[in-house]
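Predict the 3D structure for this chain.
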Amino acid sequence: MMQQFESAQKLGKDQMDAALRSFGSVSKGAQAIATELADYSKRSFEQGTATLEKLVGARSVEKAMEIQSEYIKTSYEALVAESTKLGALYSDLAKEVFKPYEGVFANAKAATEANISALNAQVAKTAA
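Done. Predicted structure below.
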């Protein structure tokens, strides 16, 4: 009986350790995502400002349309690239968050199976 208690206590400790490691991964991942979003916002603002300056200096409607078309094209390409990059960051974050629990789940399964076997042996011994 004492062995099952110690096993449950160790399992609880392992789960707490995994939760703390997982929280650290969330913190690092969220920081990386926030940094990437801030950088993208800055680049996007700078690109918009530069385009506005070009539009103000345009001498014809055709030139203004050309500048605007180029801005739309490059903005769209940047958005697609940024979305891909953010998707990869979120994917990496999900993998890192659950990585600490892989060992805990395996240990919990093994401990549960061992406890069930021990209890079955005690029941069989008591019944005999």
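Residues 30 and 122 are 49 Å apart (CA to CA).
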